[in-house]
C-alpha cells in the first residue's frame, strides 16, 4: 500500500448548517444526507481505509456521509459511527461572518457553547475555548490532525464555566482548517485526560495547489466594534511527492460599549464645616458635581482585539512506505479590556491624579507557539506506525493603564506592567494500527500506542514594583484621610513572593479494537493506562456497540469512564491581592490583604482544603441513526455524564479562624484566603439531535435544510462539606452555576438555498432559560427567558473564482434583559457576562473571497 493511505487532498465541502431536529415532530422525517448503502457497510477494511483517503482528501464533508477519524483513528463515515460525530465542513466554517474558529463553531454546532461577550478580564481572558454538553472547557480535548494541542496558562474559566489550562482554539488560523470533527462522547480511553465531554479534532488543509484570499469588514448597529479581517492560504506541491500549505489570519476588532449611567454615589458629601463625609452619609450636602458626568464614567462591552495567526503544514513521501509530516503554528493576540471603574471617592483613588475617578484599561499579550513533526510508516501486512513529537507553549503578559498605586501617593505611576505567566507541553507518541483478518464480516481494526507527556506552568516574570508593593503613603485626603492605603496597583501584578512553578510527567499506553462481528453488529473496545508523576496510575476504558437493524435504521450506545487531572497551573498557582474593608463611617481596620494559596498548603489544609484529586467521570449514551429516504437523516443520542471531584475555587474566607491559620503559617498580614478544591459532584443528563434534508430544485439549484437540538440538565449530587474548620467554603453561585448558569437548551436551524450563481443562508438560534446566580443573595438572582437570534447571509459568485457576500448576525437586534440595579456592582454594567450571544445587538458584515 502506498502513502496514499496517509495523504489527504482537500476540496470544498458540501454546504450545510446544523439545527433542530427533535423540536418539531415533522423534522423526524427530515434527516441528513444519505450515507452509503448496505453495500458500503460490507466493504473490507482496506477499502474503507482507501475510501477514507479519497473522501478525506476530497473533503466532501457533508455532515452525514463525510469521513471522520476522531475516536477511531481511521476513516469511518459519520452515519456509520458507534458514537455521535458532528462533522463541520470548510464551507460551513466560511459562513456567518466569523473571523475565528470559536465564533464559527458557536453558530454551527448545537452542543458547542462559550459566552460570546466578555466585558473585562474575567477568567480565561483572551483564551477562547469550547464547552461541550454543558461541561467546563477543560473537559474537552482539542486535537489538531489527531495530535494533542497544548493548553493555556488560564487558571480560571469564563463565567459561568470553571476549568483551567484549556486550549485556545483561536490560535489556529481559520484559513488553515479543512474541517472540524466534534466527537460528542467520552474519549479518555482513546486520548487520555481532558476528553470527558468530548473531542474537537481540527483537520488541516493539505492542498498541493491552489489558494484563497478573503477580506471581511463588519460593524455593530450601534456603530462600534468595527472589524476588519484578512485571511488566506496557499498550497504547493513538493516535487510531486508531497505538499506545503501556508495559512494566515489577521483581524482587528474594535471595542463595544453597552454601559449605562453610573448609578453609584461618586463624590464625597460635604459637611457644613467643609470637611468631607462618606458618600452614603445622610449629613451634609451633595457635591455639586454629583449629578453630572454619570454617562461618561467608563465603558462596558467587548474588548478591543488584534489577532494574528500563521500555520504552515507539510507532508512528504520519503519512500512509497515512509512519509514525513509536520506543522508549525504561531499566534499573537493583543486584547484590551476596560475594567471596573473607580468612583472619585474610592480609597483606591489618588484624587490629585484622577479627580473624577478612573477606569483601568488592561491589556493581555498572548503568544502561542507550537511545532509538530512525525513519520508515518506503512509496513503492509505488519501494520502502520506513526511516530510524532509535539511541542506547544503559551505565554501571557499583562499591562495595565490608567490606574494608580495608592500607597505611593503623588509618586504613583499610571501604567504598570503586571508580569508574565507561561505554560508549555511536550509530547512524544508512537501509534500503531493493524487490520487482522479473523473471518469476521470485516477485518478486526487494532489500534495501540504509547506516549510520554511533560507539562509545565510557571510565573515567568514579576510585575514592576508599584504593581505589588506598598509605598508607605497613607490615603491623602477624603473621609479616610490618614488611613492605610492599599497594597500594589488597583489591578495587582505578580509579586516576588508569589513566583511559583509546577510540572508533571505522564506516561501512557492504550490498546483498542473494532470488531464487525456480523454485517450488522459493530463492537469497539478500548483500554488505557496512564501514570502521572503527581497522581500515580489510573485506568480508563470504553465500550461501544452499534447494530444496523436495516439500511435505514441503526441503534448505538457507549459506556466509558473518564479521568481529568488538575492542571499544573491549578496545582501551582498562588497570588496576592488587596481588598479594602472600608466602611461608610470613615473608620477602617488595617488593610485587608488577600491571598490565593496552593491547594496543599498549610493554610489551605487548616481551612478545610488539601491536595487536589483528579476529576473522574462515567459516561453512558444510547441513540439511533435514521435514514428514511435519500438525502435525509436523523440522529438522536441521549447521555448521562457523572463527574466527581469537580475542581472549584472557594469564596474569600475570612474571620478569626482564617487569621489564626495565616498567623500560624507566618503570613499574618493576610486576612482573606482562597484556594482550589474538589468541591462538587455533578450529573448531567441530556439529548443531542442532528437532522438534515437535502432537496434538489433542478439544474444548478438546491435547498439544504438542517436542524440541531442540544438539551441538558445538570444537578449537583454532592457539595463538599468542610470537616476541618467552621468556615463555609463556597458562595452559592459556585454551587448553583452548574445547574442554572447555562441555557437549558440550544437549537440551531439552517436553510441554505443555491440557485445558479446566487446562494443564501438562514441560521436561526434559540437558547433556553438560564440564571444569573448572585454570590450571596438569592433575592438578586435574575432568570433570563428563552430567546432567539436570527442570522442571514447572501452570496453572489461574480466569476468562477470570486464571491461577494453580505450578511447580518442578530438581524433583529435582540438584547438580553438588563441587570437589576442591585447587580450593577460597578455602576455601569447593564448586562451580565453569561449571555450566550453577548449583549451587543445586530452585527452587519461584507466579505470578498477570491480563489486561485
TrEMBL record:
InterPro entries assigned to the protein according to its UniProt record, in alphabetical order: Beta-barrel_TonB (IPR000531), Beta-barrel_TonB_sf (IPR036942), Plug_dom (IPR012910), Plug_dom_sf (IPR037066), TonB-dep_rcpt-like (IPR039426)
PROSITE patterns: TONB_DEPENDENT_REC_3
Occurrences of domain TonB-dependent receptor plug (ranges): 80-199
Keywords: Cell outer membrane, Membrane, Receptor, Signal, TonB box, Transmembrane, Transmembrane beta strand, Transport
Topology relative to the membrane: Multi-pass membrane protein
Entry-linked SUPFAM superfamilies: Porins (SSF56935)
Transmembrane parts of this sequence: none
GO CC term, one of those recorded: cell outer membrane
Domain TonB-dependent receptor-like beta-barrel span(s) in chain numbering: 316-811
Subcellular location: Cell outer membrane
Similarity annotation: Belongs to the TonB-dependent receptor family.
Protein name per Swiss-Prot or TrEMBL: TonB-dependent receptor
Native organism: Croceibacterium xixiisoli
Lineage: Bacteria, Pseudomonadati, Pseudomonadota, Alphaproteobacteria, Sphingomonadales
Amino acid at each position: 500500500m502506498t502513502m496514499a493511505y496517509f495523504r489527504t487532498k482537500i476540496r470544498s465541502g458540501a454546504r450545510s448548517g446544523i439545527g433542530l431536529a427533535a423540536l418539531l415532530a415533522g423534522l423526524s422525517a427530515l434527516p441528513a444526507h444519505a450515507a452509503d448503502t448496505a453495500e458500503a457497510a460490507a466493504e473490507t477494511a482496506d477499502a474503507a481505509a482507501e475510501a477514507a483517503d479519497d473522501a478525506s482528501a476530497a473533503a466532501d464533508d457533508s455532515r452525514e456521509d463525510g469521513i471522520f477519524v476522531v475516536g477511531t483513528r481511521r476513516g469511518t463515515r459519520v452515519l456509520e459511527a458507534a458514537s455521535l460525530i458532528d462533522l463541520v465542513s470548510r464551507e460551513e466554517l466560511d459562513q456567518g461572518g466569523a473571523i475565528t474558529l470559536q465564533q464559527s463553531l458557536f453558530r454551527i454546532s448545537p452542543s458547542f457553547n462559550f459566552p460570546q461577550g466578555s466585558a473585562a478580564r474575567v477568567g480565561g481572558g483572551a483564551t477562547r475555548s469550547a464547552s461541550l454538553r454543558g461541561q467546563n472547557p477543560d473537559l474537552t480535548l482539542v486535537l489538531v490532525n489527531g495530535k494533542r494541542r497544548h493548553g493555556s496558562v488560564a487558571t480560571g474559566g469564563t463565567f459561568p464555566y470553571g476549568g483551567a489550562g484549556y486550549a485556545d482554539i483561536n490560535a489556529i488560523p481559520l484559513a488553515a482548517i479543512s474541517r472540524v470533527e466534534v466527537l460528542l462522547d467520552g474519549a479518555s480511553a482513546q486520548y487520555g485526560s481532558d476528553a470527558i465531554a468530548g473531542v474537537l479534532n481540527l483537520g488541516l488543509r493539505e492542498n498541493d495547489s491552489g489558494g484563497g484570499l478573503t477580506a471581511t469588514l463588519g460593524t455593530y448597529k450601534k456603530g462600534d466594534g468595527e472589524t476588519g479581517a484578512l485571511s488566506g492560504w496557499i498550497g504547493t506541491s513538493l516535487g510531486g511527492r508531497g505538499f506545503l500549505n501556508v495559512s494566515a489570519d489577521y483581524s482587528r476588532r474594535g471595542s463595544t460599549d453597552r454601559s449605562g449611567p453610573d448609578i453609584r454615589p461618586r463624590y464625597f458629601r460635604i459637611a457644613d464645616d467643609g470637611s468631607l463625609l462618606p458618600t452614603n452619609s445622610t449629613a451634609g450636602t451633595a457635591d455639586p458635581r454629583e449629578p453630572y458626568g454619570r454617562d461618561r464614567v467608563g465603558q462596558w462591552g467587548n474588548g478591543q482585539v488584534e489577532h494574528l495567526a500563521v500555520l504552515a503544514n507539510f507532508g512528504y513521501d520519503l519512500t512509497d512506505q515512509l512519509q514525513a509530516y509536520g506543522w508549525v503554528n504561531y499566534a499573537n493576540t493583543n486584547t484590551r479590556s476596560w475594567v471596573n471603574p473607580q468612583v472619585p471617592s474610592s480609597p483606591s483613588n489618588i484624587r490629585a491624579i484622577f479627580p473624577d475617578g478612573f477606569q483601568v484599561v488592561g491589556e493581555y499579550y498572548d503568544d502561542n507557539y507550537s511545532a509538530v513533526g512525525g513519520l508515518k510508516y506503512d509496513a503492509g501486512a505488519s501494520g502502520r506506525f506513526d511516530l510524532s513529537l509535539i511541542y506547544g507553549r503559551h505565554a501571557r503578559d499583562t499591562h495595565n493603564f490608567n490606574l494608580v498605586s495608592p500607597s505611593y501617593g503623588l509618586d504613583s505611576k499610571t501604567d504598570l506592567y503586571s508580569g508574565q505567566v507561561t505554560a508549555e507541553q511536550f509530547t512524544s507518541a508512537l501509534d500503531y494500527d493493524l487490520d487482522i483478518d479473523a473471518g469476521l464480516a470485516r477485518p478486526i481494526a487494532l489500534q495501540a500506542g504509547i506516549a510520554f507527556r511533560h507539562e509545565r506552568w510557571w510565573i515567568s516574570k514579576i510585575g514592576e514594583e508599584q504593581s505589588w508593593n506598598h509605598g508607605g503613603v497613607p490615603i491623602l485626603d477624603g473621609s479616610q484621610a490618614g488611613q492605610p492605603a492599599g497594597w500594589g496597583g488597583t489591578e495587582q501584578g505578580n509579586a516576588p513572593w508569589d513566583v511559583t512553578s509546577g510540572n508533571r510527567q505522564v506516561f501512557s499506553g492504550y490498546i483498542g479494537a473494532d470488531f464487525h462481528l456480523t454485517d450488522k453488529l459493530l463492537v469497539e473496545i478500548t483500554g488505557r493506562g496512564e501514570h502521572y508523576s503527581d497522581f500515580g496510575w489510573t485506568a480508563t476504558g470504553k465500550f461501544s456497540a452499534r447494530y444496523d437493524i436495516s439500511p435505514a435504521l441503526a441503534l448505538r450506545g457507549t459506556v466509558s469512564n473518564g479521568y481529568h487531572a488538575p492542571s499544573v497551573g491549578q496545582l501551582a498557582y498562588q497570588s496576592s491581592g488587596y481588598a479594602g474593608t472600608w466602611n461608610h463611617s470613615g473608620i477602617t481596620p488595617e488593610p485587608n490583604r488577600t491571598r490565593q494559596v496552593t491547594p496543599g498548603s498549610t493554610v489551605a489544609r487548616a481551612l478545610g482544603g488539601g491536595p487536589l484529586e483528579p476529576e473522574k467521570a462515567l459516561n453512558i449514551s444510547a441513540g439511533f441513526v435514521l435514514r428514511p429516504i435519500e438525502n435525509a437523516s436523523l440522529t438522536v443520542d441521549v447521555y448521562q455524564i457523572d463527574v466527581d471531584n469537580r475542581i472549584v475555587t472557594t469564596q474569600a474566607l475570612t474571620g478569626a479562624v482564617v487569621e489564626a491559620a495565616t498567623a500560624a503559617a507566618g503570613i499574618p498580614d493576610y486576612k482573606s484566603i482562597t484556594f482550589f478544591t474538589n468541591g462538587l459532584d455533578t450529573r448531567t443528563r441530556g439529548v443531542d439531535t442532528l437532522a438534515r434534508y437535502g432537496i434538489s430544485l433542478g439544474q444548478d439549484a438546491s435547498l439544504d435544510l438542517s436542524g440541531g437540538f442540544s438539551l441538558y440538565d445538570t444537578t449537583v449530587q454532592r457539595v463538599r462539606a468542610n470537616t476541618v474548620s467552621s468556615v463555609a467554603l463556597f458562595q452559592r453561585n459556585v454551587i448553583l452555576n452548574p445547574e442554572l448558569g447555562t441555557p437549558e437548551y440550544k437549537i440551531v436551524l439552517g436553510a441554505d438555498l443555491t440557485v445558479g450563481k446566487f446562494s443564501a443562508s438562514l441560521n436561526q438560534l434559540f437558547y433556553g432559560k438560564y440564571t444569573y446566580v448572585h454570590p450571596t443573595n438569592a433575592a438578586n438572582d435574575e432568570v433570563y427567558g428563552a430567546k432567539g437570534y436570527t442570522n442571514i447571509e447572501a452570496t453572489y459568485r461574480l466569476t468562477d473564482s470570486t464571491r461577494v457576500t453580505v450578511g447580518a448576525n442578530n438581524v433583529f437586534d435582540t438584547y438580553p434583559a438588563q441587570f437589576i440595579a442591585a447587580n450593577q456592582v460597578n455602576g455601569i454594567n447593564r448586562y451580565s457576562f453569561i449571555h450566550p450571544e453577548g449583549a451587543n445587538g445586530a452585527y452587519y458584515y461584507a466579505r470578498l473571497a477570491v480563489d486561485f
